[in-house]
Amino acid sequence: LSAMREAGAHHITVKGGKIQYNTATTAGGGIYTNGADGVVNMEKQTSKAEMLSYIEYNTAEEGGGIYANRGSVEFTDGNVDYNYASNNGGGMYVNDEGTLYMKGNAIMSRNHVPEGKDGGGVYLRGTIVVGEQVSNPADLGVLLAEDNYAGDSYQ
Questions:
Q1: CA pair distance 47, 26, nearest whole angstrom
Q2: What pLDDT, on the 0 to 100 scale, is given for residue 13?
Q3: Based on C-alpha coordinates, what's the Rg of the chain?
Q4: What does the DSSP assignment read for 5-46?
Q5: Separation CA 111–CA 90 (nearest Å)
Q6: DSSP string covering 65-127, please?
Q7: Neighbouring residues of 2: CB distance < 8 A, sequence distance ≥ 6
Q8: Within the chain, which residues score under 50 in pLDDT?
Q9: Contact in structure between 78 and 55 (CB atoms under 8 Å)
Q10: How many percent of the chain have pLDDT more than 70?
Q11: What confidence score (pLDDT) does residue 137 get?
Q12: CA–CA separation, 150 vs 132, rounded Å?
């Protein structure tokens, strides 16, 4: 099973922590959510010292880091890095009319799927919204997707 598994109308918030080194045999090595009202929030911790959220070094058949079926992923401030899926969606798999919202300092890097599979960083079968409801373009922050890989030889 995933490190965090949610089914139904629940919210999972990762706020200034790490979900790492987990394995799921099917979907969502780090986080799995299933349901139209399910929400995964990734944001930074701001009380005391500022700290980003990390989902890293997780593996699964689909959605190595995060698998969201019909729900939404609100990826605001955090990193989804170094995750692996043997099928699709190394970093994240958003399925069946799910929505991925990206704004703030959202970084997705060095995620991987094998050759012939799709979505080294994100496999999306839904909607992506980048920077929605940002009143000041400077508030958009850093949206970075780099070094995500679909193929046999990942470096």
A1: 36
A2: 79
A3: 14
A4: EEESS-EEEEES-EEES-B-SSB-SSEEEESTT-EEEEE-B-
A5: 5
A6: SEEEESSEEEEEEEEEES-EESSS-SSEEEETT-EEEEEEEEEEES-EE-TT---SSEEESSE
A7: 22, 24, 27, 28, 29, 30, 31, 32, 60, 67
A8: 133-140, 153-155
A9: yes
A10: 77
A11: 44
A12: 28
Distance CA 26, CA 17 (A): 24
Strands 84-85 and 122-124 turn out to be: unpaired
pLDDT of residue 135: 41
Q: Both tokens of residue 78? A: 């955090």
What order do you get walking across the sheet with 31-34 strand by strand?
4-7, 31-34, 66-69, 92-95, 122-124
Write down the pTM of the prediction. Answer: 0.83
The full DSSP string for 112-126 is: EE-TT---SSEEESS
Q: Where do we find the tokens 């799709």?
A: 118
